[in-house]
Amino acid sequence: MSRADDGSLRFGLFHAPFHSKRLNPTYALERDLLLTEHLDRLGFEEIWYGEHHSGGMEMIAAPELMVAAAAQRTKYIRLGTGVKSLPYHHPFMLAEAMAQLDHMTRGRAMFGVGPGALPSDAIMIGIPVGELRRRMEEGLDAIVALFKGETVTRKSEWFELHKARLSVGCFSKPMMELAVTTIRSPAGVVAAARHGAGLLTLGPMDDAVLDHHVANWRIYEDECQKHGHVADRSKWRITLMMHVAETREQAMADAAWGIREFNDYTHDVVPAPPGIPRDTVDLVGAALEKQVAIIGTPDDAIREIERVYNKLGGFGAVLLFGNDLAPWPAQCRSFELIAEFVKPHFARANVLRQASYDATARVIGEFRQTALTATTAATQAYQGKR
Hints:
This protein is an alpha/beta fold.
């Protein structure tokens, strides 16, 4: 696994997804799998699928089904639930399903968990919104114990376990990779640290929000130490909304295609306060000004990722925030440009090639003279024989 402390970064996609309400839903799900295949070919390291049950745009209800389907269509990319809302599921049944998925993917599956993002989901199934975080922590404690092979007996107000143990257990040892979502409050980092899990950090990337992330990381380090775990920055994943094109003008024109529908969704459905007023005329310009998104060229993306990386002190992976800001062909091209120019910058993939180029350029005059001398000598030798 790449480590944040050597400057290398993994790249992936956090795919809720945010699909236009105009898009054919059957095709949208197929397109999500096509995108996973595309990212696999491009060398992206991971993709995380969300779980939502209302709101219209975040339309994947069962991320584990996406993982199972995607595993059959890909070779290398790792596949995660981003995330399973633990209060909605009995922990034993969910642990059994994820352990099976770990075997079916030969260890490529990752288990991302959270309390549930949309209050409208919880209300439909009779869960008080104020209970979600506590229930997530209770469910997580039970699942981790089951993953470790323990026999678990415990009773809460919403689930019971009586000498429960997994029938098979995880393929990955000691257990499959686990990550917990965090946004602004420290609750997620405390839950993750208790079990040595990684962090999936969501939200915009302005300096004030990044300061909160820095503070939360310090809490994570302290809590990890309390529970005997190492706070590993390589397991810290940061989500960034991003669209790139060959020129800034093209990128901004692409993003203008879908940004208004996405901004309306942040006003109408998302519980967090919206970042951009609904009546803003230039939404793309506002997104750039408020540091909500990276919209520009690959060089712009490199500059902004480095800003976030340096502000946070390092992390392990950039997860692009999946949505329909741009038309589908432009989305595919954006991922291609990121794979072609942004990823290799942070992976230091071209260090040896550049060194070879520079070494040759320094002595090319000498090489040319040597080649000219050899050519002249060969010509003279030929003429002498004649």
